[in-house]
Design goal:
4-stranded mixed β-sheet, 12 helices, binds 5-S-methyl-1-O-phosphono-5-thio-D-ribulose
């Protein structure tokens, strides 16, 4: 996607192919700064500290991290150990394990001397595939938006109101985003759209990242407090919800950023369609019951007790919003049961959040 007219991706290789350059997403929207990751330690740190975040992006970045790790030692033992260590950087989004397992399977079939280069080439392929997957999610999602727009009488002066949570935009992927892909494609095609952007406490990915992305693309949007969505739905001001996902189970339960479940409940209560944009790399058929089986990342309580923002001085500062020493819990994801999901929008097509449909989807040749 473009930033001030220039095409930009949140992950790219250096010309010398010995490092990757990423956008430091902790600094947006106040500063567009880049970080070069030249070692596996730097990649691990960038994922853990959310310099890079979003399920597809951490998968692609980690694949490059494994390629870097194999340069000094590509023995079987090193391949396994480094992959497991990178997987532990963030536990919930399955794309991380998916990308690393894919690299491991690929290089294990090769002589040790060829493994680092082969891992790098595969990491690049994973990144490029992600772009195409997300473009196709947009292609499959756009007819759903058009259909609802037609039913709601969307036209000049009456846009289609979409609500989204967190950032499932191009910053969370290699390009296009997942939930935002139908939105960007609809906007480009002239569909009048307006996006309600959940702020997404505690880290505010909606306020800092989604609002920034949509602003750069010229998509009309309004930032709302996380608690406002239910009220807007009760008043008919939300036509549909689209969110991303970090792991979807065999029976269609959706794990995504904390707060997603509450939006799904409100959508269900108000008859608002609730769509989940899901690259098939986010489907984990080894897990059935999302509530019982998906590891939910617990992050630092400081993300809840403090806020970061731009001071009048122009500096990005952190301020406390709770009494010093207040204990805070910070589960980073929640699980929305399949029964609350209207449909999953994948690169292979739109499917119900049901076990049989998901198995059939994966049985198709991509
Ligand atoms: O903690 P984050 O910012 O990595 O969480 C991101 C989300 O929950 C996204 O909705 C999800 O990864 C899908 S990104 C296309």
């Amino acid at each position: 996607m473009k930033v001030q007219g220039q095409a930009l991706r949140p992950l790219r290789e250096t010309a010398s192919r010995d490092a990757v350059v990423v956008i430091d997403q902790r600094l947006l929207p106040h500063r567009l700064a880049f970080e070069t990751l030249a070692t596996p330690e730097a990649v691990h740190h960038a994922i853990r500290e959310m310099v890079v975040r979003g399920a597809p992006l951490i998968g692609a970045t980690a694949a490059y991290g494994l390629a870097l790790a194999l340069k000094p030692d590509a023995s079987d033992c090193a391949v396994e150990e480094q992959a497991e260590w990178l997987k532990a950087a963030r536990p919930t989004a399955v794309n991380l394990a998916w990308a690393l397992d894919r690299v491991v399977r690929h290089v294990r079939a090769l002589p040790a001397g060829e493994r680092a280069e082969a891992a790098w080439v595969l990491a690049a392929a994973i990144a490029e595939e992600d772009v195409e997957v997300n473009r196709r999610i947009g292609e499959h999602g756009l007819p759903l938006l058009r259909d609802i727009a037609a039913r709601k009488g969307v036209g000049p002066g009456r846009p289609l109101h979409v609500l989204t949570h967190c950032n499932a935009g191009w910053l969370a992927t290699v390009d296009w985003g997942t939930a935002t892909s139908p939105i960007y494609q609809g906007h480009e095609a002239g569909l009048p759209l307006h996006v309600w952007v959940d702020e997404t406490r505690p880290r505010n990915q909606g306020a800092s990242l989604t609002a920034w992305e949509l602003g750069q693309a010229g998509v009309p949007h309004t930032l709302i407090a996380d608690n406002a969505g239910g009220h807007l739905m009760q008043h008919g001001q939300v036509d549909l919800v689209i969110v991303g996902c970090d792991r979807v189970t065999a029976r269609g339960d959706v794990c995504n950023k904390i707060g997603t479940y509450l939006k799904a409940l409100a959508a269900h209560d108000n008859g608002v369609p609730f769509f989940v944009a899901m690259p098939t790399s986010t489907l984990d058929l080894s897990v059935a019951d999302g509530l019982a089986e998906i590891p939910i990342e617990e992050r630092r309580g400081r993300e809840v007790t403090h806020l970061a923002g731009l001071a009048a001085s122009g500096e990005v500062i952190e301020v406390a919003i709770a009494p010093a020493g207040t204990p805070a819990a910070n589960p980073a994801f929640d699980v929305t049961p399949a029964r609350l999901v209207t449909a999953l929008i994948t690169e292979r097509g739109v499917v119900p959040a049901e076990e049989r449909a998901l198995h059939a989807l994966m049985a198709q040749t991509p």
